[in-house]
Structure formats: structure tokens, C-alpha cells
Amino acid sequence: QQTSQPLQPLQPSPQASELMTVSGQSSVQSHVEVLAAAILASGERRLREASGALARLLESRKPVVRAAAAAAILRIGWGVGLGSLSQLAIDVLRSMVAVPLDSRDETTWQYAS
Q: Is the pTM of this model over 0.70?
């Protein structure tokens, strides 16, 4: 019987870190951008099996990761809904931007425009 080991975060090799330093960006910043792109790709591909990982990423310290996770969740759930997870994604995005995201904010939107 195989026991599953928890996944360890991938660390880029020194060569990869050097390559990821583009136009003055730190490798950490580039790593976050690559992660955000991968998260968005999971939404585009509508990978429902990624919803658990995406839910955890809604709590990331990096705003771009939180926003990407929320967008991916909403994309995956579009038309079928993911219940409370979809609502959590909306709430995360709502807390990050100053515009309404659903009909509950319609009155606010009319006054803001």
C-alpha cells in the first residue's frame, strides 16, 4: 500500500529563478504571476476538481492570487453554480474592488455611475 505524501511547494532552480527575473521583476513576483495564470487556466478549462484548491487560494496573502482564484471559481461554476463557494468568490472580489458585483449592489451601482 502506498501512503500519499503531502505535496511540497515547488521551488524554482537557480537557473529558472534567473530566467524568471524579467524586466526588473523579482522571481517571487514572477512566480506569483505564473501561479495566477495557472489558476485562471483552471477556470477556463472548467476543472471542477480544482475547486478545493481554489477555495484555499481565496485566502492567499497575494491579492492577484485571491482574485485569480475567485475568477476561476466563478468561471467553473458559471451556469451550474458552486453554491456557497461561488458566493465566497463573489465576496472576495467585492472586498477587493469598489464596484458592485451582483444585483444586491444594484442601487449602489446606480449612485456610483
A: no
Q: How many whole angstroms separate alpha carbon 104 and alpha carbon 20?
A: 42
**Tens of pLDDT along 7-26?**
555 555 555 555 445 445 55
How far is Cα 11 from Cα 23, in angstroms, rounded to an integer?
A: 21
- For 80, counting Cβ atoms within 10 Å of its Cβ (0-12 exposed, 13-18 middle, 19+ buried), the class is exposed
Q: How far apart are CA 46 and CA 76, in angstroms?
A: 4
* All cell numbers assigned to 34: 505564473
Provide the terminal-to-terminal Cα distance of the chain, rounded to the nearest Å.
61
- The Cα 21–Cα 59 span in angstroms is 26
